[in-house]
Protein: Alpha/beta hydrolase
Organism: Phycicoccus avicenniae
Amino acid sequence: MSRPPSRAKVAAIAGAAVGGTATVASAGGSLAAAAYFARRVLTPDPFRPDDVVVREVEDDAVVLDTTAETVVPGRYGLWLDNGRGHARLGDVTDLDAAAGTVRRVLLGVDAGRLRPGTARWNGYFVGSPPDESLGLATEHVTYDGELGAMPAWVVPPDTGPTSRWAVLVHGRGARREEVLRALPPLLGQGWTCLVPTYRNDEGVPSGPDRRYALGLSEWRDVDAAIEYAVARGATEILLGGWSMGGAIVLQLLDRSPRADLVSRVVLDAPVVDWGDVLAHHARSHHVPRPVGSLARVMMRQRWGHRLVGVHEGVDLALTDWVRRADELRHPMLLVHSADDEFVPFGPSLALAQARADLVTFPDWRVARHCKEWNTEPDRWEDLVADYVA
């Protein structure tokens, strides 16, 4: 095996990547900035800070400080006491611009105590496993993944387990509760629902580098979940994915020997092109374009792996499904709000236009990232139920 390039050589490579005229010193600064940006993208963050302030709690309402999240219509949740408690909120009933507050309907407190202070916004709406939050008969199981035992929930329809299984994949840094909004329409159409975990989830075996691979390795954990479903009698698979879960699903469809079992796909605010997402966040955080480009090179090239902290290279070109649209062969329902602030919907729209023969793409507005269900739950559930019927 060849020796890694020296620090000076790496700085020279960085200089070329950022324009070719930078000095070694400035290239070193660009290298450090690019490594930091790449690590932020790839590193799981187990700590989620509170991000909203509760001003008042009434019998049937709660008053919050206004933020970009708290003023959007729909149903949402609040994590309380560092995630140990949970409350559910409904629509906005009053917006006081002068005071900077918003009043929302209080639908219930599931756990803990709701009181004035800080809390964390929850776009899932529910905050516990399906047996607790939705009253559904739920098996808490494990399946054999590449890295060890992986926890999962199995929820059968009222008629009992069937040979049609839906495997639902949550997003980056999210909890499995994110996908539970899909259970009512899927169960209603007779699908057994399997909600798996994947590497680097909380309480789950980590990958060898404790970094996300943005779907390029996580798909193997979901593939193992499909293998588990097949062992339990599944003959037809529906795949669902939210955000990075969508990127995982797309990699699985391309790489898994079990992809032929998949009859249809439901994606919600999916990452269709990680390069576009990273460019969006680089602009949002005022990261110079050359630094963002260098971060992508470091993720992919072997010389950058140690600096970024990855075990396997992360080649973002493999995640560009607009460019790779001709390779897709599974029909999919793709729901993505034009007002998504975190994963821009442009690549989803471009994919839908490129593969109109495969992709159903309803127009959606207002909802922020992965919150299409929250703004129009009845419409979302009807779309999914009709698609999977």
User: Anything to note?
Assistant: The radius of gyration is 22 Å. Confidence is low (pLDDT under 50) at residues 1-25.
